[in-house]
Amino acid sequence: MSEHPREPDVVVRLADITKSFLGVPVLRGVDLELRAGEVHALVGENGAGKSTLLKVLAGVHRPDSGRVEVNGEPVVLATPRDAREAGIAIIHQEFTLLEHRTVAENVHLGREPVRRGRVDRRKMEADTRGLLDLLGEGGIDPTTTVTRLSVAQKQVVEIVKALSTDPRVLAMDEPTAALADHEVGLLHGLVDRLRAKGIAILYVSHRMREVFDLSERITVLKDGAFVTCALTAELTPDRLVRHMVGRSLDARHPDRATPDDLGDVRLALRGAGNDRVRDLTFELRAGEVVGIAGLQGSGRSAIARAICGVEPFTTGALEVDGVVRRVTDPRAAVRLGIGYVTEDRKGEGLALRQSIRDNALLVRRAAFTGRRGRERADLAALLGSVAVVSRGEHQEVRYLSGGNQQKVVLAKWLAVGPRVLVVDEPTRGVDVGAKQAVHRLLRDLARGGVAILMISSELPELIGMSDRVLVVHEGAIAGELPAGAAEEAVMGLATGHGAGEVA
Amino acid sequence: MSAPTTWRPRLAEGAAPVLAVLAVLLVALAFAGPAYSEAAGYLALLKRAAPLVLLAVGQYFVVVSGGFDLSVGSLVTAEVVVAARLVDGRESATGWVIALLLGFGLLVGLVNGLVTTKLLVPSFIATLGMLLVLDGAVFLWTGGAPRGALSSSFRVFGRGGVDLPVLGHLPWSVAILLAVLVAAVLFLRGGTGRTLVAVGDNENAVRLAGGRVDRLKVLAFALSGLLAALAAILLGGFAGVSAQVGSGLEFRAITAVVLGGVVLGGGRGSVVAAAAGALTLEALFSLLNLLGVTGAPESAIQGVIIIAAVAYAARGGGRRLGSRLRAGPPDPVRG
């Protein structure tokens, strides 16, 4: 990529790292080597040990055995501070920003420059502005409070915060998980600029396309063990997936609905709106999967939240099975047979410290008190049908992988036999194998007569799964595209051009 | 899934440490005092502990759903003082006064719950306010010295008992205690009980699942108020009428719940363990009594216990032990 050939100078080397929790091995002899100026992708299914490895690098977890070398010198990373001093910066998947402080304050948190015994705000803001300009993100004002920023902008602030320590290694844990497609492009530009500065970048992602677009080398983990480290150019997505899961996955999505599969109109919106979305008019039939595409903040999730009564519609009408209904709270929606798989699984979808059983029965118990009985018998069948892998129905859901957690969320709705299922980012943070399982499950449900409204920021998934796609732009539906539409057509509508124009 | 084979007594979740401590204390009691050389001594302990156990069960409902109830101590005092004044020694008044007391406890709980859920006052503050209101009201009403007296039929619940064929003498308070505990366990096994615990864990998830979060929280406070009224009825008979009868009981109940391994903030812990916590606390104080320690040190010891129990839970002591017990077949690498 760069003009002059680079020396493969190794900045960080982890060798034969092992780590167990409660006697359960999480890392079993993992090697990782990061070179200056390379983007190194770290991939593996959920539970493969990626996050643990990252935390070893961050000084959060101490390995049980193995060597850590920085610039060829053996070091001990016992605390996050050690890691920072060794020039390692980590951007975690969850934001670590203080929402009510300014961008500059967040960037310098705990390391505020001091002048005459007082925090030197001017220097803090100037430094931050310098870094933002360097990243080509001059549009963010260092004096704005973080609450006012979009998700993508927050991600930029996280990166600036990491860069402010002048690191030689930058590790990013699924940095695009919360970003819309066009924002992902911006992030990639940014990563390229960092690479050009000679920073070694460790990039953890589930998204194949990103891994192949960005990285020079890929390290694959499986079940805590090192599988391979290969040049990206020598791999194909298919071979990479085989390394990750140990088998070849059929990359196709399940078959779409045929006209025979379509039944009655389950859900209809007639000019519905609230302060986030307006003039929504569409129908959802039994047996079909309708996708909603749109940029982050376009109102695509607001549609889901309105239908499900979280932030209800204030104008227009909502019909369920042809009858106009008032859905003023989630309970009303649930009792009408509308299920909602939220995009925030941990914050809204699951009671993490409760058992699989209690979560799977949550909707039935919470919304349909009175209709009891048969719990024990159906539960096993239910959990079997979504293929949850666990140690038993009394295991707490927080110990499950993302994919299995999502299956529990689905089971929770299946337990009450919904007529309409609204799913927002159903495969976020879910590994490749479980992703396909979720897709199949959704399609099976549709075939069983459920009407499914699906939101996803991952266009290949959305297009691959949907029987038609509604594209949302600035709170209104910009257009409808048939099954198998091109990504360019979707993006065109989503960004406010026409479907014909290529974005 | 190996679903049917993995049943474990979830309602005793986290109870192991407190039960171990309780067992040690009970054995120590036998060595410390001659009264505990036979079963009657332990029965007397259970009888003495009954009001605190009831308060701990009530407090459990509130804590596990994510709140605090600081008003129960003052509520107990108010109930006892009101009872003495209204009954005023008349046997005929016993029935309706007891009904009134239970109703009043329920009402105070409802107000606590509604202030928390509808006025959005954090429960810590809402029930602290209620504590002060009740304290003030009692003082205003009695002028500092409670008047009147309880009837003997009222006092029988705290003092008396029934002679059963096989079991022998069973104090009413112990019978009530057992009935409440069984009812609490059954309630918590049911859908509403499980949902209440889920509210303490993640109320957003319960709300989006169609649950009535506010109603469940109000229910927890109402149960706490009702059980405080019941505790007051036992305590009035057992300890007599004074303006200090309930003082400090709210903290004692919270200590008991925490000692039982119930997590402050909600979502985790068992009611049986909370009850065991109350019994442990009472056994500890009995032991200290036998050893000649009374008064001020009790409160200091209680302070140390509550900090130590929360620290133990926060540092993962309970969790580690819990997950080890839960971890299924032992892993060969473990060591």
TrEMBL record, chain A:
Database matches in SUPFAM superfamilies: P-loop containing nucleoside triphosphate hydrolases
Entry keyword annotation includes Ribosomal protein: no
UniProtKB keywords: ATP-binding, Cell membrane, Membrane, Nucleotide-binding, Repeat, Sugar transport, Translocase, Transport
Stretches assigned to the ABC transporter domain: 12-248, 260-499
Molecular-function GO terms, alphabetical: ATP binding
CDD domains: ABC_Carb_Monos_I, ABC_Carb_Monos_II
Highest taxon of the lineage: Bacteria
Pfam families the UniProt entry points to: ABC_tran
Keyword Flavoprotein: no
Alphabetized Gene3D superfamilies for the sequence: P-loop containing nucleotide triphosphate hydrolases (3.40.50.300)
PANTHER family reported in the protein's UniProt record: CARBOHYDRATE TRANSPORT ATP-BINDING PROTEIN MG119-RELATED, D-ALLOSE IMPORT ATP-BINDING PROTEIN ALSA-RELATED
Protein name per its UniProtKB record: Sugar ABC transporter ATP-binding protein
UniProt organism field: Saccharothrix xinjiangensis
Lineage: Bacteria, Bacillati, Actinomycetota, Actinomycetes, Pseudonocardiales
TrEMBL record, chain B:
Primary location recorded for the protein, binned into one broad class: membrane
Superkingdom per UniProt: Bacteria
UniProtKB keywords: Cell membrane, Membrane, Transmembrane, Transmembrane helix
Membrane topology according to the record: Multi-pass membrane protein
InterPro entries in UniProt: ABC_transp_permease
Ranges annotated as spanning the membrane: 61-84, 96-115, 121-143, 164-188, 218-241, 253-279, 299-317
Compartment list: Cell membrane
Protein name per Swiss-Prot or TrEMBL: ABC transporter permease
